[in-house]
Structures are given as structure tokens and as C-alpha cells.
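Continuing the batch. This is chain 6 of the set; chains 1 through 5 are on the previous pages. Same settings as before, nothing changed between runs. Recording input and output for traceability.
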Amino acid sequence: MTVFKAFLKVLNKSKAPIIMYTVFLIIFAGFNIETSDNPTQFTAEKPSIYIVSRENPKGINRNLIDYMKRNCKFVDLEGKNLEDAIFYRDVSYIIFIPEDFGKELLNHKMPKITVKSTKDYNASLSELILNRYLETAYAYSKVATTEEELVEYMNDTLNKKSEVEILSNLDTSHLNKATFYYNFLNYALLAGFIYVICLILSSFNEEKIKRRTIVSSMNYKKFNQKLLLSNGLFALVLWLFYILLSMIIVGRVMFTTHGLFYILNTAIFSCCVLSIAFLLANVIKNKNTVNGIVNVIALGCSFLCGAFVPMEMLPKSVLLIAHILPSYWYIKTNELLKTTERFNIDSIMPIIINMGVVILFTIGFVIMTNIITKRNQKIN
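Output for chain 6:
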């Protein structure tokens, strides 16, 4: 009880960092969620084109022009400089249809069409549309005997539309919000736990207090257990606060199976962070070095493992190095949850493996702490 009371007394003096890192979490998570309130939806946009052909085109020439106008946005550049139109992005794709276009097809040859392009994504889309028409026309030219027959075959095929039905029931908008919140929580937990616990335990490691503890009847393992339980209570309260905060910020997804796994993943990671903080507190001798340790570990792990920058945007070499950090496995689980539609043995097995790796990290840090503490029992 004496150890616990002393712990609370020192904790009260170290509450400022907890408030600061919590404010960071609220600001950044809230900003991200605010900017992503409107779910991203795909809207097809027609690329802008201009077509140069002979006057009063007929047959297959007319059919190609009509097809391109239906699938693209036609821009009238009559009388304008075409090179300038491409340069100033007035149009993304210009097609020059040769006069012998139909004849070439009926002779079973692929006609050569000259184009001018801005070489951007709009131009690429225009090229795909044009190539679809040309390849279809070339295929039917082998069976059509007249230009009218070729146009009929073409229209029957190109006018067919495919309907796409989305069968996924994933609430991607809210899952993205939850993933960002819990990924950023990696930084808040590392920074808050390490900073506060290192400051608290460094007070217990002061020379006078340390000597009194060593010569007392209390075994070093029992002393460590009491400190670990005190830190555990602090971690539990802070963890519960962050979970309640996620329910307010993220919303309904936290009351689903996905939310349960987010919470469980964070609980396991919090235990790991607690063991890291406890280990560092037994290594750090100077309180002035705590800030530097926090910056190196919390910021380093967050940047390397995808808390600030999404994992898919990080180089493979960086992610390969990140495998040695527990933050990587924690954040990887969050990313998996974002894309998990159904929870079965196949889908949750990678999640369980990631959580198991974090637990192994925790056990390793606890063992290392006991070894270091035992060595520190010798009075210099």
C-alpha cells in the first residue's frame, strides 16, 4: 500500500503530459474524421476529345465519331490551333480519322489512326475507349461483307452495358475512421506511458529511496510486482478513457464485432507499452533524458510502422525494419480489421497471430526488466 500511495502522489505531479498527448489525439483524430465525413464515391468523368475527319462522314467513319462522342466529352476546336489546345489542356485527346478508315477494315486490316495527346489519365482513358472500338471493329471485319453489316455488328456489341453490383456490407467510412484513430493511438500510448511512467519510476530509483528499498525486507520481485500493478492500474484507467473517447469520436462501429477487436488489440498493445515503459524506467537514470527517449521511441515507431503515414505508402525496406517493433504488429492488425468483412477462422487467424506476436514482445520485455532490476540490487 505504501508503494501504491507513493505512486499516486508522483502521478498527480505528472498529469500534464497525459493531458497534452490526449489533446493531440483528439485534434488529429477529429480533424481526420471531419475531412472524411463524406464517403469517397466513384464518379465516372468523360475525357475531353476533338475529332478531325473528312466532311460529312458516313458508314463506319460516322459510327466511330458517334461512339466517341457518346463515351467522351466533345470539345469544338474548329478554327483553333490544335497544338495550343493540347498544350493548354483545352482538350486531352485529338483523333485524326483517315479517309480510308472503312476500306482498311473491310480489307481485314487494322487502320492506322493518328492522335495527339496530353498523356495524362484523361488521355489514357480516351485511348482505351478508342482501342476498344478499333479492336471490336477489326474482329467483326473478318465476318462482315459490307460496311453496313459491320456497323450493325458493332452497334449490337458496343451498346451492351454491364451492371456492377457491390455485395460488400463493410462500413468503410467508419472503419477508416476507427483505423486512423487507433493507429494514431499508437503514438499517444507510447508517448504517454513512457513519459509518465519513466518520470514516476525515476523517483523510486533515486539513490536514497533505492538504497532504502534494497536494505528493506521486501524482495525485489515483490517490489517490482507492486510497481507493475500500480502502473497497470494507471494504464487501465488511461486505456478505458481512450476507448470511451473512441466511442464518441468514431461512433457506431465501436459497438460491432470490428469495434470489439479494435479494443482487444489496443488492450494487448497497452500491456506491451506498459512493459516497455517499465523496462526503460529501470534503465534511465536521469530524468532529463526522458523527453529524448519519448521522441525517439514514440515518434520513431509511429513513423516507421504506419501510425502517421499509411502502411501502403511506406517503402518495403522501411516495413521490413518495422517488423522488429511491436507497433508494426499492432497497426497491421488495425489495417486488417479495416478490410475484414466476415469473421471466421480464416479471417481472424492473421489477427490472432499479430496479437500473439505483441504478447511475446510483452513477455520478453518483462523478463528483461526482471534481469536488469536484479542486477541493480547490488549496492555500489
